[in-house]
Amino acid sequence: MIEIYHNPRCGKSRNCLAFLDQSNQDYKIIPYLTETPSFADLKLLLEKLSLKPLQLVRVKEKIWIENYKQKNLNEDEIIQAMADHPILIERPIVIKDGKAIIGRDLDLVASFLD
């Protein structure tokens, strides 16, 4: 089953969801802003993405700029910041067969799902 970390207010996330609908893919929506992933969930997600924690952070978000940007955080502290403030998590994230991608590029999503 495909899973998508989705923010309905994000155009890229809505486009990815529409793409999944058009390609007749079965999926489960993870509304990560209301069902906040735990520290452990994020750590596992980062493994599936093969990314370092900072690569998953939306560094232009006001919360990041005001509270974290000037600090020298280790990886666990960055993950905790995303757990505390899920708006910092890059989106959408598409998960399939134990792997994941950031689904901002629909061509990338298409090849990921094939």
| Helical residue percent band | 40-55%
Cα distance, first to last residue?
13 Å
Question: Radius of gyration over alpha carbons?
Answer: 14 Å
- Give the helix tally: 5
Count of β-strands: 4
Give a concise summary.
The chain has 114 residues and is an alpha+beta fold.
Blueprint of the fold:
Layout: E1 2-5, H1 11-22, E2 27-30, H2 39-49, H3 62-67, H4 75-84, E3 93-96, E4 99-102, H5 106-113
Parallel strand pairs: 1-2
Antiparallel strand pairs: 1-3, 3-4
Which key terms come to mind for this protein?
114 residues; alpha+beta; four-stranded mixed β-sheet
Question: How would you explain this protein's 3D organization?
Answer:
- This protein is α+β, with helices and mostly antiparallel strands and 114 residues long.
- It contains five helices and four strands, in the order βαβαααββα.
- β3 and β4 form a beta hairpin.
- The longest helix is centred in the N-terminal third of the chain and has 12 residues, at 11-22.
- The mean pLDDT is 97.
